Amino acid sequence: MLRGFYTAASGMLAAQYRQDMLTHNLANSETPGFKADQSVTRSFPQMLMQANQAQLVKNQQPIGGLSTAVYLQEQITDLRQGDIKQTGNSTDLALMQQGAAENEAVLFSVQTENGVRYTRNGNLQADEQGRLATGSGYLVQGIDGNPIQVNNEQFTVGSNGAVTVDGQAIGTIQVVHSENTNALEKDGDGLYRDEENVLQSAHGNNDVTFAIQQYALENSNVNVAQTMNEMLQSYRIFEANQKVLQAYDQSLEKAVNEVGRIT
């Protein structure tokens, strides 16, 4: 009976973690360049339980598999391209990955207080010193590793990231590419960190095709209707496991207070 407690409780925890992830996706459905998380749920391996139980049966006869728990194994970020919308703002840049495979991605490179990070959010601005920066103040890097000095918002960005002010080229925005998006980790505020050094410059790489569109932004790739449906499903799973837990609790209470009573 106690095993049933653990099984139901693990189901509730897995549903709660998934609900938190879906809530975060939904809350960022209007954030430019946001990429939704997806979860992978897995049950505890049955073979281990089968082997343990077989030791208690004569002639070593297996009695079959027995699931003991379920857990949220991992969260995977979906880096597929979001829809592009026109904004009319010169500081808005949409980064488009053209012909990329499902597990590939291109990103902007920015300088933060914790080092270099990467983002798909092209909602930029000119900071107080005239440098191109994100809304949170992270400096957009050029291919030389230095900030892009635009001075004001009257600048032009070409499809290859080349920035010009008053007809004069002042630098090129660094765009990086990854063939293994699973190696990237979310770092908050729409940023990613590259712990495994899988990111390489996309400039001069004939195998990578990207384009930057000025006066436009990439929308979040969150499917709001699907996310709300998955949240409802997750809630129902949590509720079902909760009822199972309550049933076990009532059975255990009866076993202790009635069946086990000494008269």
TrEMBL record:
Q: Where is the Flagellar hook protein FlgE/F/G-like D1 domain?
A: 108-165
InterPro entries assigned:
Flag_bb_rod_N, Flagellar_FlgE/F/G, Flg_bb/hook_C_dom, FlgE/F/G-like, LlgE_F_G-like_D1
Q: Which residues form the Flagellar basal body rod protein N-terminal domain?
A: 5-35
Q: Does the keyword Ribonucleoprotein apply?
A: no
Q: Where in the cell is it found?
A: Bacterial flagellum basal body
Extract the Pfam families matched here.
Flg_bb_rod (PF00460), Flg_bbr_C (PF06429), LlgE_F_G_D1 (PF22692)
Which stretches make up the Flagellar basal-body/hook protein C-terminal domain?
Answer: 213-257
Q: Which PANTHER family match?
A: FLAGELLAR BASAL-BODY ROD PROTEIN FLGG, FLAGELLAR PROTEIN
Family membership, please give it.
Belongs to the flagella basal body rod proteins family.
Q: Give the protein's recorded name.
A: Flagellar basal-body rod protein FlgG
